[in-house]
Write a structure and sequence with these properties.
The protein is mostly helical. The chain is built from 2 helices and no strands.
Length: about 70
C-alpha cells in the first residue's frame, strides 16, 4: 500500500458521538418497520376477499339477469 493512502471515510472522535440520539433513531426506525410490516401483511388478504366478492357479484348479476 502506498504511504499516502487515506481511508474513504475519516474516523470520528468517540467523544463526539451521541449514543442517545443514535438509539432514539434506531428505535424510531424499528417502530416504523414493524408498523409497515403489519400494514403490508393484510394487503394480500384484502385483495383475495375483494376479488372473491367481485367474482360472486358478477356471477349473481349474470345469474339473475341473463338466465
Amino acid at each position: 500500500m502506498p504511504d499516502d493512502y487515506h481511508p474513504p471515510i475519516p474516523r470520528r472522535n468517540p467523544e463526539d458521538i451521541d449514543l442517545g440520539a443514535i438509539k432514539a433513531d434506531l428505535e424510531f426506525l424499528i417502530e416504523r418497520v414493524t408498523r409497515l410490516r403489519k400494514e403490508q401483511a393484510l394487503k394480500p388478504l384484502y385483495t383475495m376477499i375483494g376479488s372473491a366478492a367481485t367474482v360472486i357479484a358478477w356471477i349473481e348479476l349474470f345469474w339473475r339477469h341473463c338466465l
